[in-house]
Amino acid sequence: MHVLDTVKEKVIEGVRLTEKEALDLYQEADLLILGGLAHLRRLKLHPEKLVTYIVDRNINYTNICFSKCRFCAFCRDESAADSYIISQEEVAQKIEETLRLGGIQILLQGGLHPQLGLEYYEDLLGFIKSRYRIHIHGFSPPEIIHISRQSDLSIEEVINKLKAAGLDSIPGGGAEILVDKVRRKISPYKCTSTEWLKVMEIAHKNGLKTTATMMFGHVEAIEDRIEHLSRIRQLQDKTGGFTAFIPWPFQPGNTSISRSGTTGFEYLKMLAISRIFLDNVSNIQASWVTQGAKIAQIALNFGGNDLGSTMIEENVVAAAGVSFCLPESELVRIIEGAGFRAARRTMDYALL
């Protein structure tokens, strides 16, 4: 039996793949075969044929960041004319609009500001929670590491202080590729892969659910992507704290990495292999924000069971020149047009 046939048989039987088998499958399988195998895995996990989404808003509290990652078009120096730190009044306006639109969550993220200390973040969380009943999904691992260094506190102390102030869960941003030789090329001043994973492990241990992401299609090799998936799977085996995995392609516009954008073909392959390999992560999110409605719809038959957020506001991807925007009604139409039923959810995938 050919090695690829053996791997396909393991997928059909629900047997866990090794990194080598996942690499062989990615490199050798026809796109439609790969998508079919991923869809099979998806239906075994979610036989009810629902596709979920959440109504929320991204609030980027500052675009000032010392990290200057090569893939980022969003960050600014403190001296830049368009740099900012958001005021509490503006946060209040954004949350009130979100609530009026039926939103239940805000995604709170920002740059690694060299001057902001732990008190700023505690005050911001306290301000929000004292006024609004809304889930705060905030502060990705690089931000947690940065706050830890700024405040001279351990990662666990920072997480527990933020949790006490009102943090409800942690987004999986800043993962990029969890291979340090890649990170040194694209984000040398950001936390290491081990630090990223450590934040997530401590968060899970302290009762905070998180998501996990991967930004691919820049300077990494396919082997690096598989290693990234493997490190996510290993931590999930240990903690069970990841609610979803979100692979999204690098957007080259206005960045210092010169390459063409990821094709829909490559995106669908990566989404499919993520669904197949991450047998212990229940939900795989398709990215309409970077891929647009048509590819996102196809992705629902390539392993994706979630379409993420309605994105009342999005700034980081938009800074790279990509600006797909969909109202909730269109998100529902996409889901139903692909043969599924749409359902609103919370961050931890409880249905509303």
Concise summary:
The chain has 352 residues and is an alpha/beta fold. The protein has helices at residues 3-13, 19-28, 31-45, 88-100, 118-131, 141-151, 155-165, 180-186, 193-205, 222-239, 264-277, 288-299, 316-319, 328-337, and strands spanning 50-54, 56-60, 105-109, 135-138, 210-216, 242-249, 283-284, 306-309, 341-344.
Low-confidence runs: 314-324
* Count of separate DSSP helical elements: 14
Percent helix, as a range, is: 40-55%
* Residue-averaged pLDDT: 90
Could you tell me the strand content as a percent range? 5-15%
> Could you give the order of the helices and strands?
HHHEEHEHEHHHHEHEHEHEHHE
Largest sheet: 3 strands, parallel
CATH class: Alpha Beta
How would you classify the helix and strand content by structural class?
alpha/beta
Q: Which strands sit side by side, in order, in the main sheet? A: 8-1-9
And the CATH topology?
TIM Barrel
What is the end-to-end distance?
Answer: 47 Å
User: What is the total tally of β strands?
Assistant: 9
CATH superfamily: Aldolase class I
Shape: globular
| Count of discrete domains | 1
Describe it.
With 352 residues, the chain is α/β, with parallel strands linked by helices. Helices cover 46% and strands 12% of the residues. The chain has a single domain, classed as TIM Barrel (Alpha-Beta Barrel). It has 14 helices and nine strands. It has a three-stranded parallel β-sheet, covered by helices on one side. Strand 2, helix 4 (88-100) and strand 3 form a beta-alpha-beta unit. It is globular, with a radius of gyration of 19 Å.
